[in-house]
Amino acid sequence: MSVPSKENIRLTKEDLRQLHVSTSLYRWFLRYFPDGGTYSAIHSELIKQRRTQWIESFIQYIYLRHFSEASFAKQEQEVMENILFLLGNEQQGVTLQRLPYHNMLPTSENIQFSTEWHQLILKSQQLSTDLALCGSNNIVAFSGDENSIANTGYNNQLINTGFAGKVCNTGNQCRIGSLGGRSRICNSGNDVKIYASGNGVHVANSGIRSFITASQDRAKVTNTGDLAQINVTGKNTVAINTGDNCKVTVSGDDSICISTGNLHQFCLGKGGSAVIAYHDGNRTRFKIFYEGEDDIVAGVHYYLDENQQPVAEKQYSTDQN
Q1: Domain boundaries along the sequence of the chain
Q2: pLDDT tens digits for 224-247?
């Protein structure tokens, strides 16, 4: 676990009061973090104590306040890796844990099973495991290759670190983490947080108010949900958006943003380009922007004014001066 620095996201008791959290959660926080704590440390303690019912409120606040920060993706990956570390490593088979129950599934490959349990801890290093999950407040951590997770439950944490993993989610307020290459993620749940750090990942989202991060090269992200925030940082990536009032950042070199929805904000990287649709009163037209041309600067966030001209967001333009 990394040493906290000034860039680490922190949470204090004042923040919790603003969140109007439950009395039990507030007392728990004062007991273990009286002087506040980092995102990673608080999240790890929640996992250690199996406080799965509180994780969503905590994550929601962190994403709303800190998603656009440059250090967010790195810290989110650290949190994902900590989940796997804290749950421990199983050498074989699939472990189901729901206190006071503990069960091992068979150790052969191609395991297929389903569960409607709530507050379940499920971990596996097995290859080609298929899981159907409909319970809520669960934590699933798969590290084998070519695993598949289908979830309809509420407030679940779904982590997959293996190669070519697949996650399909329709549950609301879930978090999906994929650290393996060539993973495929499909989501239609609302208020879902998606983090993918493998090369060549594909993410398709139709849920509203979702947060999507893809941090490695050649990622492809497609979004049709409104009010989404998309942050793609790898090289040669593509983000396609049809949702309204979305924020799209493609900050990796030679990446592309295409939007036919009413885009709230966009940001390009070196050599990046954006194609943004607008309606001139008679028909749909497209504006094309290239980094390095027409005053478009890499790393600066823009919105379009009433004349469809890019205007730098004040907080970002100020930082440049």
Answers
A1: 10-87, 96-320
A2: 999 999 999 999 999 999 999 999
